[in-house]
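Q: For a teaching session next week I want to show students how multiple molecules come together into a single three-dimensional assembly. I've collected the sequence lines for a complex. Could you give me the predicted structure tokens for the whole thing so I can convert them for display?
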Amino acid sequence: MAMTKPVLLEVSDLRTRFHTPEGTVFAVNGISFHVDEGETVAVVGESGCGKSVSMISLLKLIPTPPGDVYAGTVIYRGSDLLQKSEQEMEDIRGKEIAMIFQDPMTSLNPVLTVGRQISESLRVHLGHSHELAESRTVELLELVGIPDAARRVYDYPHQFSGGMRQRVMIAMALSCAPSLLIADEPTTALDVTIQAQIVELVARLRESLHMAVIWITHDLGVVAGMADRVIVMYAGFIVEEASVEDLYDSPSHPYTMALLGALPRVDRRRDQRLKSIPGSPPNLLVEPRGCPFAPRCDFVIEKCRQENPSLIQIGNSHSTACWVDVKTGAPR
Amino acid sequence: MNMIMESTSPNQPVPLNMEGLDTPPLTLSQLAWRRFRRHRMAIFGAIVLTLLIIYALAGSLVYPESYANHTDTSLRLLAPSMEHPFGTDSVGRDILARTIYGGQISLLIGITAVIIETLAGILIGALAGYYGGWIDSLLMRITEAMLNIPEIFLLIVMAKFFGGNIPEIEFIGRTFSGSVIVIVVIIGLTSWMYLARIVRAQFLSLKENEFVLAAHATGTSNAQIIFLHILPNSIAPIVVSATLGVANAILAEAYISFLGLGVQPPTATWGNMLDGANNYLESAPWLWFFPGLLILLTVLSINFLGDGMRDALDPRSRAV
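A: Of course. Below is the structure for the complete assembly, covering every listed component.
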């Protein structure tokens, strides 16, 4: 945990909402976090808690309308991305900040060869000639572990398996050696053995390219192996932020504890059932009053229903947003 | 950057013995060709169409254009004979030679009008579907307004409006009546609406695909996403629509020329050869029979071809 690394990305009070016919959905409600150079930060939470939306917001990829990033700053290397023009963002996306997506089956264009899709950003961002881009593409495919790469650049996505397509996506994302890679649940659609390979691949490439990674997942098992820090999100809020060790050793938010309780472990007795979290995430159509987790929380006190707790520091780079000290059960 | 090249690849899979499996998988176009070959009517259409094109092109090697336009009233309305296999028309021109040169013009009009139609349809449909919002509303209201006016009426009005004094034009060593260009533009500009709607519908659904978001995330510009990422995905319905559009354009030229508002003589088209033939429906049926038959064959074979292409290019039909 060297704290000397310079800050790469600093997000403050980011807020995103969607105007829908049913009303306004508050998807991201003032999240603040930072990513240091070369660091891996995991963002975890249930489906629909704003993980992906916040990442897409900071790349200015939220479709407007209906979406609307209405507050906050995203300082990347000293300048605010949210103030940049579309043209300036096109230079940053893919070159400085790259993103890989959840479903490799749908995130590659079915009618273009994979070689074309990878070499495109080389030509756009680095101004490579056709030949240079093509030879670099072959190198990239070899790098991500695609056998017979020189021939496979001419293949179409449907000729690759799911795991191989995700490797292609990674090759695409890494083509311009970005400083920050945002991985949006890149292993969710893959089976477990392939998941492990992809996690290992990204970890290895992160080392060699010295890039920072934001890894969005709802699998805390994946997080343990690779992240430096973990951000837990719920209903568009950050509810806990901690180093991996702190998070697993002393989770300080009831939601984090519930997530960990729902995780299968090899050291648990086999007759113990996994605990699920009762209820479902709140309807984001109404701006929540009080703590959004209160209706599902085992530790709930009266104050939780009145007022939403903000993140408070409880240790060295460990903060939580809860009115209750979960170790003692007493209000803070 | 060198970092990428230096790092090794520990999880490189063990190379398998791939001998015997070496046939490359079929590409999308090979699959489409396989499906097309199964479509007997489409093959029939393709063959007939090819023969018609050969007829129009090779025929001009046999008869010079001056012969096709040569009038001799002493030879008017002759029935088909050895001398004039298709007979002669009301001013004594050889109908066989005129169907050859007329065919060139009719096919040329069909194809070029469709190019204009397709460009306009793609541009309007793509912008409307991709950007949505007020751009979509504006473009679609224009499209609907155009669709509400009967096409024949639009054609007649525009032909009257633009059909004034147009100089003749020289093109690849031949002289055309300037009205050819006018007709091409008019047909192109009155027929793009259906294609625009098809393209818009395609874009509306395709733009929601994750690969579009992924392309955005790699810094691809809107123009590149529209033309290099989404458009190739909707090429199948566009090709089908354009193919059928050729038939419609030839028909449109035929009926507007039949009304005397189309391509002006002496330039022959299959359509303007029918002009005046209605006076001789029974007395000289060869006047309308041969150009009519050629129009029928062309339109029919293009429609068969389009049908076959629709089946062959449909990505959902995976039958091989």
